[in-house]
Amino acid sequence: MVGLFPNSTALCQAFTPTSPYYKPAPKPTENLEKRRVFSSWSAAESAKDKAVELSEAAQKEYEKASAKAQAKVGGIELYSAKYYAACTVGGILACGTTHAAVTPLDLVKCRRQVDPKLYKGNFQAWGTIARTEGFRGIFTGFGPTFFGYSVQGAGKYGFYEYFKHLYSELAGEENAQRYKTTLYLTASASAEFIADVGLCPFEAVKVRMQTTIPPAYSGTMNGLSTITGKEGIGGLYKGLYPLWGRQIPYTMMKFASFENIVAAIYNYLPGSKSDYGKGAQTGVAFVGGYLAGILCAIVSHPADVMVSKLNAERAPGESFGGAMSRIYSKIGFSGLWNGLPVRIVMIGTLTGLQWMIYDSFKIFMGLPTTGGAPEKKETAKIPPDSTAHMANVSHGRGGAANIGPDSLAYADGGIVREGPVGDQGDGPYSAGRGGVGNIEHDAKPTSATPHDTDVVPETATRIAKVESHHVGRGGAGNEQHIHEKKQDSLLDKIKGFFGSPSVKK
Questions:
Q1: Terminal alpha carbon distance of the chain
Q2: Residues of the chain with pLDDT under 70
Q3: pLDDT in tens, 272-320
Q4: What does the DSSP assignment read for 236-278?
Q5: Whole-angstrom Cα distance, residue 287 to residue 278?
Q6: Residue 65 neighbours by CB under 8 Å, 6+ apart
């Protein structure tokens, strides 16, 4: 039976064209150049896969270390002592390391501020310093820079978080949101005022080391002891006023502009801040910090020049005002801007890295990053005829405009339940007692025994007009997961402690 059917070779010969003009297509030869290209591509893919593998392993190790650190410290509650301690450590890491890393730039900047003709450019300056003072000479002032700005960073970031929360409490939630830029400015100024007291002694040593050739001191401790031995403790603080003049505007611009720039970035990006991962949030922190740093450099540069001049040229016993006048008459207004381009590059990079390191440390400790637009809150919509949430009655003081014409009164001392819709149609309704400020001319007691001395019972049915909207604080039972929570200001708490004025019934 096998011989009855042709095999594959016979079929191929039978159907192959027999024309003399027909030539079968030659078998394609391999392109050696292409093989080389694809070999390189394969190697690149292999390297990429290896890099991704290492990155994932590093990410796992980071998360493991972060979880271990958080477990060791315990839960960190916002605005607790642990929270401020974590912010302080983050400030040390952010400021001490970054300022020390740019010591070569700072060295050239300080020397050019004192003598603009000393160097023609940065690279020429570094080459000259390396030849005359050795490679270590490029890092002159590294020690006092690291210690001084570590102390300053601890105070700056730690106290900023503290004062920002304190002033928010004093202003109240609504005012804090409305005047948030003013809040950032005052909190950062207060923090920097304290932080500079710790920075000033180290800054004096740093500037004198960097502006004298060869350096006046062999190290940080030698500089501190030499200055105090010759001039007393006051010698370490004779640059404090100009330091405040430089650092306070700098820090005010640094924090206020950063907070607003980061909020603007998240407002521009789709979604909310919480939609982005840790890497993206630290990237936003760097961009916001770099842009803020450019503004900081411009605002604080004249004072920075004067600090360098005062520490280098102020004579013992010379008054602050006299030294300022003498130096200004010598350098003029244009002299106050010597070295600005270098400082813009330095401060921009510095500030961007500081915010990135600071927020990275906060993420490492399980804390939210700094700045960003507030999360959008959604309000539940309840149709007018809905009674599904009728049981959601709370016993507290009525919130703003909670009481509508359809509300019901209870005869138990003034508890009022809002109707299904309320004046604003804002959904889940609340019941509460009217506070002292809620009483209108049409309010009548429903009971002779109110629950609290500062609460007057009122009727829920009233004239529906804007002037009659009741203003008070919602009770704890009013707060649901869809409600935006209101926090009493510290002033409200103080008023509550001393008691509200009595109301005649």
A1: 119
A2: 1-44, 373-505
A3: 888 888 889 999 999 999 999 999 889 888 888 887 788 777 777 788 8
A4: GSTTHHHHHHHHHHHHHHHHHHHHHHHHHHHHHSSS-GGGS-H
A5: 14
A6: 364
Tell me if 235 is assigned to some domain. Answer: yes
Q: How many domains does the chain have?
A: 2
In a domain, 40, yes or no: no
**Is the same domain home to 416 and 345?**
no
478 Ramachandran zone, left/alpha/beta (phi>0; psi -120 to 50): alpha
Residue with tokens 């070569």: 104
- Other C-beta atoms lying within 10 Å of the C-beta of residue 100: 20
Examine the domain organization and report whether 311 and 433 are in the same domain. Answer: no
pTM of the model: 0.62
373 falls within a domain: no
Residues 425 and 349 grouped into a single domain = no
Helices 103-114 and 142-171 pack at an angle, to 10 degrees, of 90
Amino acid found at 228: T
33 part of a folded domain: no
Residue 40's pLDDT is: 57
pLDDT one-digit tens code per residue, 66-79: 888 888 888 889 99
Secondary structure (DSSP) of 380-449: ----TT--TTTT----EE--TT---TT-EE-TTTS-EE--SSTTTT-SS--EEE--GGG--TT---S-SS
Reported as a single tens digit per residue, the pLDDT across 378-396 is 443 444 444 433 333 333 4
* Residues 413 and 338 occupy one common structural domain: no
Do both 240 and 130 map to the same domain?
Answer: yes
pLDDT in tens, 20-30: 665 566 666 65
CA distances for 295 relative to 254, 316, 351, angstroms: 8, 34, 10
Please check whether residues 246 and 274 belong to one and the same domain: yes
